[in-house]
Amino acid sequence: MTFIIGCCFGSFGYLLATRLPKNSSLFPPSHCEACNTRLSWLELIPLLSFLLQKGRCRHCQTKIPLDYLIAEITCGLLFTLCLNYSPANPIITCFWLYSAWLLSISDYYFKILETSIFLVTSLVLWLGQSYLKMPFHWQTFLYCLLFAALFSYYYREKLGVGDLLLLLAWSPWLSFWQFSMLLFLSSSFGLLYFIVAKLLQKNSDRLPFIPFLSCGLFLVLHFNKTIHALFILAWELP
Ligand SMILES: [Zn+2]
What we know:
Elements: H1 2-19, H2 48-52, H3 66-85, H4 90-110, H5 115-131, H6 138-154, H7 161-170, H8 176-199, H9 210-222, H10 224-236
This protein binds zinc ion.
């Protein structure tokens, strides 16, 4: 059931994350990008419509991008994992990672931090965490401020202002260890992607970094103890 709910949020979120950066209205509701036919509710059921129509528009037979399906499935999995297996408060963890997922989609397609999604979700995250009386990690916040200041001074072109703002919004709700792991994991993923892209000779001028930050956040929120144990193990190896 949580998977289905996640898929529905995925379907709506994909629309939000791809329309808001273009300043296009959320109305009229979904239509085929190729023939502009307005889609009926039968064609808007997450997963099912795509599979029943064999990935094609019912009216003009144009292929529907696979991205829709991938977005719905990843969001469905995200909700299932967060709501059933999250070690912290499942609702706030789910909301936090869903917002990261939305921002990742905007960053992936438009290489920006979508301001409206960022501001609204950060505000809800801060209010929610404060309401639940979660510890505010001043140390991490100040460390992140220092990191952001140094980075924007020396390496402005490597990491965008958007990525730094997002890190600042997340930082007080992570322990110092979690935040350090987040930086380590996301930059490792970024580096790995960069190497693979170079090997495949795919040229990209700027890497969308929010998807890597989001993967790192997912791991530190769910597998903090495992990562910690692995690190201690690696440290003690001769
Ligand atoms: Zn069509």
